[in-house]
Amino acid sequence: MNDATDRHADRYGGPLVSRRTARVLLALGAAAFLAVVVYVGLQVSQNPVRSELLAYDHLADDVIAVDFQVTMDPGTAATCTIQALNKGRAQVGFVETEIPAQETRRSAHHVEISTQGDAVSAEIIDCTTR
After folding, report:
1. Which sequence spans correspond to the domains of the chain?
2. How far apart are CA 24 and CA 29, in angstroms?
3. What residues contact 76, with CB distance under 8 A and at least 6 apart?
4. What's the pLDDT score for residue 22?
5. Cβ(114)–Cβ(62) under 8 Å?
6. Quick one: CATH architecture of 50-129?
7. Which of 5, 68, 69, 84 could form a disulfide with 93 if both were Cys (CB 3.0 to 4.6 A apart)?
8. pLDDT digits (tens, 9 = 90+) for 15-52
């Protein structure tokens, strides 16, 4: 070390951990982060049913129509939960719809939701296998 480094260490103290310890801790943190990312990725990829909102249309002041697509293995039945939302993102309508077993992997569906107020949007909460 040089004189300036010695004066700096005398004034502020030395490092809390050595360089080697810091590298080991950094490597352990990176490994833990990578493990969490892999775990979450595996959990998401194992979901047997995927859904996608295609469109929604206001049929009346108290009815909103929702078109959505479900992707699942042929022969699988599912239940989808869809909600209608107002301007403040509060739920004003809700429906659970049964998707019967399909012959194709992707299928399009249509549902109408009765609302208790002005709905400005809709979203699919969840689709799960039965």
Report:
1. 2-45, 50-129
2. 9
3. 48, 49, 101, 102, 129
4. 93
5. yes
6. Sandwich (2.60)
7. 84
8. 888 889 999 999 999 999 999 999 998 887 777 889 99
